[in-house]
Amino acid sequence: MRRPRSRRCRAAEAAAAALLLLPAAACGSRLPESDFEHRDHPSATARAPLRVGILASATSPVGGDAFTGPGDGARAFFDRLNARGGIDGRRVEVRTCDDGGSGVGDNACVHRLIDEDKVVALVATTVLDYAGASRVSHARVPDIGGQPIGAAYDTWPHLYGIYGSLAPRDGTPGWHGTLYGGTEVYRYFKREHGARTAAVVSYNQAASAAYARLVERGLRAEGYRVVAEQVDFALPNFRAVAADLKQQGADLVFDALDTHGNALLCKAMDEVGARVTAKVTNVQNWTSTVPDDYRDAPRCRNALWATGSSRNLDDTGDPAVQEFRTATRGLGTHSQWQLEGWAAAMWFTEAARSCARQGITRACVDAWMNRSEGFTADGLLLPVVFERLPEPPKTRRTCLSVARWRDGRGWVSQGDMNRTCFDVPQLPYAP
Questions:
Q1: Is the whole-model pTM more than 0.85?
Q2: How far is Cα 191 from Cα 167, in angstroms, rounded to an integer?
Q3: Most buried in the list 68, 100, 145, 359, measured by CB within 10 Å?
Q4: Has keyword NAD (predicted)?
Protein backbone atom coordinates (compact mmCIF):
# COMPACT_ATOMS: atom_id res chain seq x y z
CA MET A 1 0.00 0.00 0.00
CA ARG A 2 1.33 3.39 -0.89
CA ARG A 3 1.91 5.88 1.86
CA PRO A 4 1.58 9.34 0.40
CA ARG A 5 3.69 11.92 2.11
CA SER A 6 3.59 15.64 2.54
CA ARG A 7 6.29 17.84 1.06
CA ARG A 8 5.54 21.11 2.82
CA CYS A 9 7.67 20.49 5.87
CA ARG A 10 10.28 18.52 3.89
CA ALA A 11 10.65 21.07 1.13
CA ALA A 12 10.43 24.07 3.41
CA GLU A 13 12.90 22.57 5.88
CA ALA A 14 15.34 21.67 3.13
CA ALA A 15 15.12 25.26 2.00
CA ALA A 16 15.83 26.63 5.46
CA ALA A 17 19.59 26.73 4.94
CA ALA A 18 19.16 28.18 1.48
CA LEU A 19 16.78 30.98 2.39
CA LEU A 20 19.64 33.22 3.53
CA LEU A 21 22.87 34.17 1.82
CA LEU A 22 24.71 33.50 5.06
CA PRO A 23 28.34 32.97 5.84
CA ALA A 24 28.45 29.38 6.95
CA ALA A 25 30.96 28.97 10.14
CA ALA A 26 7.27 0.54 -7.26
CA CYS A 27 6.46 -0.69 -3.52
CA GLY A 28 9.08 -2.92 -2.01
CA SER A 29 11.49 -1.70 -4.66
CA ARG A 30 14.92 -3.19 -4.18
CA LEU A 31 18.10 -2.96 -6.20
CA PRO A 32 19.00 -6.53 -7.22
CA GLU A 33 22.11 -7.94 -5.62
CA SER A 34 23.43 -8.52 -9.14
CA ASP A 35 24.12 -4.81 -9.36
CA PHE A 36 26.83 -5.31 -6.77
CA GLU A 37 28.34 -8.50 -8.21
CA HIS A 38 30.77 -9.18 -11.02
CA ARG A 39 29.04 -10.46 -14.12
CA ASP A 40 29.90 -12.85 -16.91
CA HIS A 41 29.98 -10.12 -19.53
CA PRO A 42 32.84 -7.85 -20.63
CA SER A 43 34.20 -5.57 -17.97
CA ALA A 44 32.58 -2.19 -17.37
CA THR A 45 35.52 -0.50 -19.08
CA ALA A 46 35.14 -2.53 -22.29
CA ARG A 47 32.03 -0.69 -23.47
CA ALA A 48 31.14 2.98 -23.84
CA PRO A 49 30.53 4.57 -20.44
CA LEU A 50 27.13 5.77 -19.38
CA ARG A 51 27.29 9.48 -18.53
CA VAL A 52 25.29 11.07 -15.73
CA GLY A 53 25.49 14.61 -14.44
CA ILE A 54 25.68 15.84 -10.87
CA LEU A 55 24.77 19.50 -10.56
CA ALA A 56 25.54 21.15 -7.23
CA SER A 57 26.24 24.54 -5.70
CA ALA A 58 29.56 23.25 -4.38
CA THR A 59 30.63 26.86 -3.90
CA SER A 60 27.96 29.40 -3.00
CA PRO A 61 27.29 32.33 -0.67
CA VAL A 62 25.71 29.86 1.76
CA GLY A 63 28.99 28.05 2.34
CA GLY A 64 31.50 25.77 0.68
CA ASP A 65 29.97 22.44 1.66
CA ALA A 66 26.31 23.32 2.17
CA PHE A 67 25.13 21.57 -1.01
CA THR A 68 27.71 18.84 -1.61
CA GLY A 69 26.27 15.99 0.49
CA PRO A 70 23.87 14.43 -2.04
CA GLY A 71 26.50 14.49 -4.78
CA ASP A 72 29.03 12.86 -2.47
CA GLY A 73 26.58 10.08 -1.70
CA ALA A 74 25.69 9.55 -5.37
CA ARG A 75 29.34 9.39 -6.43
CA ALA A 76 30.06 6.84 -3.70
CA PHE A 77 27.26 4.66 -5.01
CA PHE A 78 28.48 4.88 -8.60
CA ASP A 79 32.07 4.13 -7.56
CA ARG A 80 30.88 1.00 -5.79
CA LEU A 81 28.65 0.07 -8.73
CA ASN A 82 31.50 0.46 -11.22
CA ALA A 83 33.77 -1.72 -9.08
CA ARG A 84 31.13 -4.45 -9.31
CA GLY A 85 30.61 -4.31 -13.08
CA GLY A 86 28.60 -1.16 -13.76
CA ILE A 87 25.22 -1.28 -15.49
CA ASP A 88 24.97 -4.03 -18.11
CA GLY A 89 28.73 -3.96 -18.43
CA ARG A 90 28.91 -0.18 -18.80
CA ARG A 91 30.77 2.00 -16.36
CA VAL A 92 28.86 5.01 -15.04
CA GLU A 93 30.87 8.13 -15.80
CA VAL A 94 29.96 11.05 -13.55
CA ARG A 95 30.25 14.55 -14.95
CA THR A 96 29.97 17.26 -12.29
CA CYS A 97 29.32 20.97 -12.48
CA ASP A 98 29.45 23.61 -9.75
CA ASP A 99 27.03 26.45 -10.50
CA GLY A 100 28.44 28.68 -7.76
CA GLY A 101 25.00 29.16 -6.25
CA SER A 102 23.84 31.59 -8.97
CA GLY A 103 21.14 31.40 -11.61
CA VAL A 104 23.60 32.35 -14.34
CA GLY A 105 25.98 29.64 -13.23
CA ASP A 106 23.17 27.13 -13.04
CA ASN A 107 22.08 27.78 -16.61
CA ALA A 108 25.69 27.43 -17.76
CA CYS A 109 26.01 24.10 -15.96
CA VAL A 110 22.77 22.80 -17.43
CA HIS A 111 24.00 23.73 -20.92
CA ARG A 112 27.33 22.02 -20.39
CA LEU A 113 25.96 18.81 -18.91
CA ILE A 114 23.05 18.39 -21.33
CA ASP A 115 24.32 19.85 -24.60
CA GLU A 116 28.07 19.24 -24.40
CA ASP A 117 28.54 16.25 -22.09
CA LYS A 118 25.32 14.61 -23.38
CA VAL A 119 24.45 13.07 -20.02
CA VAL A 120 21.60 10.57 -20.04
CA ALA A 121 20.26 11.96 -16.75
CA LEU A 122 20.97 14.28 -13.87
CA VAL A 123 21.22 12.66 -10.44
CA ALA A 124 20.99 14.16 -6.94
CA THR A 125 20.79 17.79 -8.08
CA THR A 126 21.32 20.14 -5.13
CA VAL A 127 21.48 23.82 -5.99
CA LEU A 128 20.66 27.14 -4.41
CA ASP A 129 18.95 28.60 -7.51
CA TYR A 130 17.70 26.02 -10.02
CA ALA A 131 17.33 28.59 -12.80
CA GLY A 132 18.06 25.96 -15.45
CA ALA A 133 15.19 23.66 -14.41
CA SER A 134 12.96 24.69 -17.32
CA ARG A 135 15.78 23.98 -19.77
CA VAL A 136 16.27 20.50 -18.27
CA SER A 137 12.55 19.85 -18.62
CA HIS A 138 12.30 21.15 -22.18
CA ALA A 139 15.25 18.93 -23.18
CA ARG A 140 13.35 15.98 -21.61
CA VAL A 141 16.35 15.00 -19.54
CA PRO A 142 15.28 13.10 -16.42
CA ASP A 143 16.48 14.74 -13.22
CA ILE A 144 16.39 11.97 -10.63
CA GLY A 145 16.38 12.33 -6.87
CA GLY A 146 17.12 16.04 -6.64
CA GLN A 147 16.72 17.98 -3.40
CA PRO A 148 13.64 20.28 -3.50
CA ILE A 149 15.21 23.60 -2.62
CA GLY A 150 12.64 25.89 -4.20
CA ALA A 151 9.61 24.84 -6.25
CA ALA A 152 11.25 23.37 -9.39
CA TYR A 153 10.34 19.75 -8.58
CA ASP A 154 6.69 20.76 -8.14
CA THR A 155 6.73 22.78 -11.36
CA TRP A 156 8.34 20.93 -14.26
CA PRO A 157 7.81 17.52 -15.86
CA HIS A 158 10.85 15.22 -16.19
CA LEU A 159 12.08 16.39 -12.76
CA TYR A 160 11.73 13.76 -10.03
CA GLY A 161 12.54 15.09 -6.57
CA ILE A 162 13.72 12.72 -3.87
CA TYR A 163 10.44 13.18 -1.93
CA GLY A 164 7.97 12.85 -4.81
CA SER A 165 5.19 15.22 -5.82
CA LEU A 166 1.43 15.32 -6.26
CA ALA A 167 1.37 18.60 -8.23
CA PRO A 168 0.40 18.77 -11.92
CA ARG A 169 3.95 19.86 -12.86
CA ASP A 170 2.73 21.73 -15.92
CA GLY A 171 5.14 24.66 -15.75
CA THR A 172 3.39 26.44 -12.87
CA PRO A 173 4.46 25.80 -9.26
CA GLY A 174 2.07 23.52 -7.41
CA TRP A 175 -1.57 24.24 -8.12
CA HIS A 176 -1.98 27.59 -9.88
CA GLY A 177 1.11 28.93 -8.12
CA THR A 178 0.28 27.59 -4.64
CA LEU A 179 1.95 24.67 -2.87
CA TYR A 180 0.39 22.58 -0.12
CA GLY A 181 1.79 20.53 2.71
CA GLY A 182 1.08 19.01 6.07
CA THR A 183 1.71 19.44 9.75
CA GLU A 184 3.02 15.98 10.59
CA VAL A 185 6.17 17.19 12.37
CA TYR A 186 4.16 19.33 14.78
CA ARG A 187 1.58 16.56 15.25
CA TYR A 188 4.36 14.14 16.17
CA PHE A 189 5.74 16.23 19.03
CA LYS A 190 2.26 17.02 20.25
CA ARG A 191 1.12 13.40 20.29
CA GLU A 192 4.32 11.64 21.31
CA HIS A 193 5.77 14.17 23.74
CA GLY A 194 2.86 16.30 24.90
CA ALA A 195 4.37 19.53 23.56
CA ARG A 196 2.05 22.53 23.76
CA THR A 197 4.24 25.64 23.48
CA ALA A 198 6.61 26.12 20.56
CA ALA A 199 9.06 28.92 19.85
CA VAL A 200 10.14 29.90 16.34
CA VAL A 201 13.39 31.89 16.07
CA SER A 202 14.27 33.85 12.95
CA TYR A 203 16.43 36.71 11.70
CA ASN A 204 15.00 40.10 10.80
CA GLN A 205 15.62 39.23 7.17
CA ALA A 206 12.83 38.72 4.62
CA ALA A 207 13.39 35.10 3.66
CA SER A 208 14.11 34.01 7.22
CA ALA A 209 11.01 35.77 8.52
CA ALA A 210 8.85 34.29 5.75
CA TYR A 211 9.96 30.75 6.57
CA ALA A 212 9.32 31.41 10.26
CA ARG A 213 5.76 32.53 9.50
CA LEU A 214 5.22 29.29 7.59
CA VAL A 215 6.32 27.23 10.61
CA GLU A 216 4.19 29.34 12.95
CA ARG A 217 1.11 28.78 10.82
CA GLY A 218 1.57 25.02 10.90
CA LEU A 219 2.08 25.01 14.65
CA ARG A 220 -1.07 27.05 15.24
CA ALA A 221 -3.03 24.67 13.02
CA GLU A 222 -2.00 21.92 15.42
CA GLY A 223 -3.13 23.92 18.45
CA TYR A 224 0.23 25.11 19.78
CA ARG A 225 0.80 28.32 21.64
CA VAL A 226 3.45 29.96 19.50
CA VAL A 227 6.24 32.21 20.74
CA ALA A 228 7.77 34.18 17.88
CA GLU A 229 11.35 35.35 18.44
CA GLN A 230 13.38 37.48 16.05
CA VAL A 231 17.01 38.56 16.25
CA ASP A 232 18.97 41.16 14.35
CA PHE A 233 20.81 39.59 11.45
CA ALA A 234 23.94 41.70 11.90
CA LEU A 235 24.06 41.76 15.72
CA PRO A 236 21.92 38.87 17.03
CA ASN A 237 21.25 38.85 20.78
CA PHE A 238 20.65 35.15 21.28
CA ARG A 239 20.99 35.41 25.04
CA ALA A 240 17.90 37.62 25.23
CA VAL A 241 15.99 35.15 23.06
CA ALA A 242 17.10 32.23 25.22
CA ALA A 243 16.02 34.03 28.38
CA ASP A 244 12.58 34.66 26.91
CA LEU A 245 12.28 31.03 25.81
CA LYS A 246 12.92 30.00 29.39
CA GLN A 247 10.40 32.49 30.77
CA GLN A 248 7.75 31.45 28.22
CA GLY A 249 8.20 27.78 29.06
CA ALA A 250 8.74 26.66 25.47
CA ASP A 251 8.57 22.89 24.94
CA LEU A 252 9.95 23.02 21.40
CA VAL A 253 12.23 25.34 19.47
CA PHE A 254 12.09 25.62 15.68
CA ASP A 255 14.21 28.05 13.73
CA ALA A 256 14.90 29.82 10.45
CA LEU A 257 18.62 30.19 11.14
CA ASP A 258 21.88 28.95 9.66
CA THR A 259 24.03 26.34 11.43
CA HIS A 260 26.22 29.00 13.05
CA GLY A 261 23.15 30.82 14.37
CA ASN A 262 21.73 27.59 15.73
CA ALA A 263 24.96 26.86 17.56
CA LEU A 264 24.97 30.33 19.14
CA LEU A 265 21.31 29.97 20.12
CA CYS A 266 22.00 26.60 21.74
CA LYS A 267 24.98 28.01 23.61
CA ALA A 268 22.82 30.85 24.94
CA MET A 269 20.10 28.39 25.96
CA ASP A 270 22.63 26.40 27.99
CA GLU A 271 23.99 29.56 29.60
CA VAL A 272 20.57 30.77 30.82
CA GLY A 273 19.32 27.30 31.73
CA ALA A 274 16.56 27.11 29.11
CA ARG A 275 15.53 23.46 28.92
CA VAL A 276 13.27 22.23 26.14
CA THR A 277 11.82 18.89 25.09
CA ALA A 278 13.33 19.28 21.63
CA LYS A 279 15.40 21.70 19.60
CA VAL A 280 14.08 20.60 16.23
CA THR A 281 16.30 20.75 13.15
CA ASN A 282 15.93 19.51 9.57
CA VAL A 283 17.41 16.96 7.23
CA GLN A 284 20.20 19.26 6.02
CA ASN A 285 21.56 19.53 9.57
CA TRP A 286 21.19 15.79 10.23
CA THR A 287 24.93 15.18 10.21
CA SER A 288 27.76 13.57 12.15
CA THR A 289 29.34 16.98 12.80
CA VAL A 290 26.99 17.80 15.70
CA PRO A 291 29.72 17.45 18.40
CA ASP A 292 31.83 20.09 16.66
CA ASP A 293 28.98 22.36 15.59
CA TYR A 294 27.48 22.43 19.10
CA ARG A 295 30.60 21.87 21.17
CA ASP A 296 29.78 24.78 23.51
CA ALA A 297 26.21 23.62 24.23
CA PRO A 298 26.18 20.06 25.62
CA ARG A 299 22.69 20.23 27.14
CA CYS A 300 21.05 21.78 24.08
CA ARG A 301 23.08 19.47 21.84
CA ASN A 302 21.49 16.47 23.49
CA ALA A 303 18.05 18.00 22.93
CA LEU A 304 18.55 18.10 19.14
CA TRP A 305 15.95 16.22 17.10
CA ALA A 306 15.80 15.83 13.32
CA THR A 307 12.89 14.86 11.09
CA GLY A 308 12.82 13.80 7.46
CA SER A 309 11.77 11.19 4.91
CA SER A 310 14.72 8.80 4.93
CA ARG A 311 16.12 6.18 7.26
CA ASN A 312 18.49 7.42 9.94
CA LEU A 313 22.11 7.42 8.74
CA ASP A 314 23.19 6.02 12.13
CA ASP A 315 20.76 3.07 11.95
CA THR A 316 23.63 0.75 11.02
CA GLY A 317 21.67 -2.33 12.03
CA ASP A 318 19.80 -1.88 8.77
CA PRO A 319 21.68 -3.62 5.91
CA ALA A 320 21.03 -0.83 3.40
CA VAL A 321 22.31 1.82 5.80
CA GLN A 322 25.34 -0.30 6.66
CA GLU A 323 26.17 -0.67 2.97
CA PHE A 324 25.99 3.09 2.55
CA ARG A 325 28.20 3.69 5.60
CA THR A 326 30.77 1.16 4.44
CA ALA A 327 30.99 2.72 0.99
CA THR A 328 31.29 6.27 2.36
CA ARG A 329 33.66 5.70 5.28
CA GLY A 330 36.40 7.53 3.41
CA LEU A 331 34.39 10.77 3.46
CA GLY A 332 35.30 11.51 7.07
CA THR A 333 31.88 12.87 8.02
CA HIS A 334 28.42 11.55 7.24
CA SER A 335 25.09 13.23 6.61
CA GLN A 336 21.50 12.41 5.83
CA TRP A 337 21.85 14.26 2.53
CA GLN A 338 24.67 11.89 1.56
CA LEU A 339 22.37 8.95 2.23
CA GLU A 340 19.64 10.53 0.09
CA GLY A 341 22.13 11.13 -2.73
CA TRP A 342 23.12 7.47 -2.52
CA ALA A 343 19.41 6.57 -2.81
CA ALA A 344 19.06 8.87 -5.84
CA ALA A 345 21.92 7.04 -7.60
CA MET A 346 20.28 3.73 -6.75
CA TRP A 347 17.05 5.04 -8.29
CA PHE A 348 18.78 5.97 -11.55
CA THR A 349 20.51 2.58 -11.64
CA GLU A 350 17.22 0.73 -11.35
CA ALA A 351 15.76 2.82 -14.18
CA ALA A 352 18.83 2.32 -16.40
CA ARG A 353 18.88 -1.44 -15.84
CA SER A 354 15.27 -1.65 -16.96
CA CYS A 355 16.31 0.00 -20.24
CA ALA A 356 19.43 -2.05 -20.88
CA ARG A 357 17.84 -4.40 -23.43
CA GLN A 358 16.35 -1.70 -25.67
CA GLY A 359 19.02 0.92 -25.00
CA ILE A 360 19.70 3.26 -22.07
CA THR A 361 18.45 6.57 -23.42
CA ARG A 362 17.04 9.70 -21.86
CA ALA A 363 13.58 8.82 -23.16
CA CYS A 364 13.62 5.27 -21.79
CA VAL A 365 14.93 6.30 -18.37
CA ASP A 366 12.37 9.11 -18.19
CA ALA A 367 9.51 6.78 -19.16
CA TRP A 368 10.52 4.38 -16.40
CA MET A 369 10.72 7.20 -13.87
CA ASN A 370 7.32 8.48 -14.95
CA ARG A 371 5.85 5.06 -14.20
CA SER A 372 7.79 4.48 -10.99
CA GLU A 373 5.64 4.33 -7.91
CA GLY A 374 6.50 3.62 -4.30
CA PHE A 375 10.28 3.52 -4.76
CA THR A 376 12.05 3.01 -1.41
CA ALA A 377 15.75 2.50 -2.29
CA ASP A 378 15.81 -0.80 -0.44
CA GLY A 379 14.03 0.79 2.52
CA LEU A 380 16.18 3.91 2.77
CA LEU A 381 13.29 6.15 1.72
CA LEU A 382 9.65 6.38 2.59
CA PRO A 383 7.75 5.23 -0.53
CA VAL A 384 8.08 7.95 -3.16
CA VAL A 385 4.92 8.83 -5.08
CA PHE A 386 4.41 10.94 -8.20
CA GLU A 387 0.86 11.81 -9.15
CA ARG A 388 -0.58 14.70 -11.10
CA LEU A 389 -3.64 15.57 -9.06
CA PRO A 390 -5.92 18.21 -10.62
CA GLU A 391 -6.70 19.61 -7.18
CA PRO A 392 -4.61 19.65 -4.00
CA PRO A 393 -5.61 17.19 -1.28
CA LYS A 394 -7.26 18.63 1.83
CA THR A 395 -5.75 15.99 4.10
CA ARG A 396 -3.16 13.27 3.70
CA ARG A 397 -1.74 10.37 5.64
CA THR A 398 1.89 11.24 6.10
CA CYS A 399 4.82 9.34 7.60
CA LEU A 400 8.13 10.69 8.86
CA SER A 401 11.52 9.62 10.11
CA VAL A 402 12.58 10.97 13.49
CA ALA A 403 15.94 10.80 15.27
CA ARG A 404 17.44 12.34 18.40
CA TRP A 405 21.08 13.17 19.05
CA ARG A 406 22.77 11.44 22.00
CA ASP A 407 26.43 12.01 22.88
CA GLY A 408 28.34 8.77 22.51
CA ARG A 409 25.57 7.19 20.43
CA GLY A 410 24.99 9.65 17.60
CA TRP A 411 21.56 9.96 16.02
CA VAL A 412 19.15 7.54 17.68
CA SER A 413 16.04 6.55 15.71
CA GLN A 414 12.71 7.24 17.39
CA GLY A 415 10.35 4.52 16.20
CA ASP A 416 9.77 3.02 12.75
CA MET A 417 9.47 5.65 10.04
CA ASN A 418 6.98 3.48 8.14
CA ARG A 419 4.67 3.45 11.18
CA THR A 420 5.13 6.99 12.47
CA CYS A 421 2.23 8.30 10.41
CA PHE A 422 -0.51 10.89 10.83
CA ASP A 423 -3.60 12.10 9.01
CA VAL A 424 -2.90 15.82 8.76
CA PRO A 425 -4.39 18.86 7.02
CA GLN A 426 -2.70 20.29 3.94
CA LEU A 427 -2.07 24.02 4.24
CA PRO A 428 -1.41 26.36 1.30
CA TYR A 429 1.80 28.37 1.04
CA ALA A 430 3.50 30.48 -1.58
CA PRO A 431 6.70 29.05 -3.13
A1: yes
A2: 29
A3: 145
A4: no
